Amino acid sequence: MSPRRHRRVAAKGQAQALVFAALGDATRLALVAKLSTGEPRSISQLTLGFRLTRQAITKHLRVLESAGIVRNAHAGRESLFEVDREPIVAAREYLAHVSQQWDQALSRLKTFVEE
Amino acid sequence: MNMVSDRIEKRIELKAPISRVWRALTDYREFGEWFQVKIDGPFVPGQFSRGSITYPGYEHVRWEAVIEKMEPEQLFSFTWGHPKSIDKTSYWPDSSNLPTTLVEFRLEKTPTGTLLMLSESGFDKLPDDLRLEAFRRNEGGWTEQMKNIESHVTQKA
Question: 3-state class of B92 per DSSP?
Fold first, then answer.
């Protein structure tokens, strides 16, 4: 692997690892759910419905942003957030892959103990 | 279901007595039969278990785990490393640096046999290019899988 490609791959992998940590929180999951319609929303809009301050919500959004789950887009003076699906898909892929391997192993186990 | 979970959970009904299933899980030779790995010696809690994969095409890949718990007919668990690469050219069994996940098998007696509950957790700790590597080596089935994932994410999200 070329050093350049290696860096790119490693950086991407690191980002994917962050996704799991970032989504391991009820508030952040709820924020992603809110944003998942695809429409960018302001921090005020996102704070609605939470018993949390705007500052607390902003903090959560920054965590999601650093994991690459949401993007910050500016519209005039307002700061808008929107969801970026790619890392979520990548993290799911890996779990789906391991999950599929377990399905195969357990099916071999089943044959093994039932015969 | 959460959008992204850090664990895998499976339940499977086996038409075999719990003692039979326990043996298939914890006897290293029997485990090797269905898991497709040749293991060097018996499982001992707190100790490494080493061997090599026997699944065709993956024979150069080492099996390495630390056996955690063996509570007879109830719980068998181990942690194991996710190799950085399973390419013949780039694979090196540097176990000490491998990130690990925890695998737990729990057993319950049922009227018809045994309920086996498997979980693997700790995926949030896996760093670097592991996931991409896995993705790359499993390219074939992924086009389909990608569609499933995509539609799942789109629906749920």
Answer: coil
